[in-house]
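Hi Y.,

Following your request, here is the sequence exactly as I used it, all 433 residues.
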Amino acid sequence: MSLQPTLSEASAEFCFLLILLVPLAGAGLALLSCGLGRSRSAAHSMLASLCVMATAAITYVICGFRWQGAPGTADHVLLIGAKSWSWIAASPFLLRGMPLDLSSTSLIVLLQIFSVALTALIPLSSGSDRWRLSAMCFSTVLLAGWTYPLFAHWVWGGGWLAQLGANRGLGRGFLDGGGSGAIQAVGGLTALSVSWILGPRRGKYSADGMPAAIPGHSVVLVLLGCFFAWLGWLGLNSAGAILFAEAEPSRIVLVAVNTTLAAGASLLATLGITRHRFGRPDASLVANGWVAGLVASSAGSAMVKPAAAMIVGLVAGTLIPFAVDLLEFRFAIDDPGGAISVHAIAGLWGLLALGLLADVRSAASGQWLAQLIGIATLIGFVLPLSYALNWLLDRVHRQRVDDEGEQLGMDLHELGASAYPEFASHSEEFMPH
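Below is the corresponding structure, written out as tokens. Let me know if you'd prefer a different format.
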């Protein structure tokens, strides 16, 4: 069980201020999800964002931190091969007995409350226009109460993935400073599970299986969300670097530079590819490229050089348009906001990139192998777990709205009022039946 280093008072105050930026990332993702959805579900989308963030935060405080813990707190271990492997924490429910001050553990709790809320936002865009509000909240309880804290313990709470370095000599163990895996990939894989269970939107696929383009209703909201996401990610990556990657506060300048470079390189890569393929840039895909760069930067922004950060972003931005096409055309997965491509695929790439490009002597130390083990855990354990939990939920509480509600729009069906009462919502004339 590793011990969390003690921060000086000045460093703790600085870290606290950085953590306060993280909710801006949530605002950015909420605007992206809303803008990429239909106009008749816009109010529902924004309200759902607030609801799942509230549900995630409360659930995490009630029982999530119990399972995640922090380095140095109580945990349950398994003895395998004369080595002690931590698999789950044993912290108190409801944060009982925990002094909420500027201690390292308290800062971790605050950052994780915001982080689990951010994770819960990611699947919303995949379920856009057809996911019931109550089902979103119940699904968030499962995510924040079990799936997220379990994997986060393995990564950030002194769990077995973090112990791969000490117990097996694989570099410094699995590393994920800002949450490319623990936040982004977990959220993205949950989005994949939700998309599978809900099925495509009404009219998305024709009788011969060809997908129809259903454009988002407001590119302006989408692009505004990119700016908010940038600010939030600067806080997320910086605070994560201090608390989970043991970076000195002075290294935060490097984190901010790398986060910005990765996002910028990713955006330009997606812009160039869409312009080449379609004759002009696709604003929605380019926006997703920007966020994908932020996502990929999170794992190692404190551990790579600026040139490597641009490589991370270029690859992420190149992956996005092809991943979106692959999911939509080959696997018939309807993901209106591109959350699976942006958060799951770019997040997994960010984890791998840390092992390949980070300045931790990865080739000699086996850091790349520790990263691969973490990626395999996400795909082989977290994805099936998330799917199983949401599948069981769907058996008890149907997650998808009925056809009449989807045709009417989530705003009128579930809220009884339109987001834009003075304007007519888009019809379905462009959609195949």
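The first helix runs from residue 9 to 19.

Thanks again,
Q.
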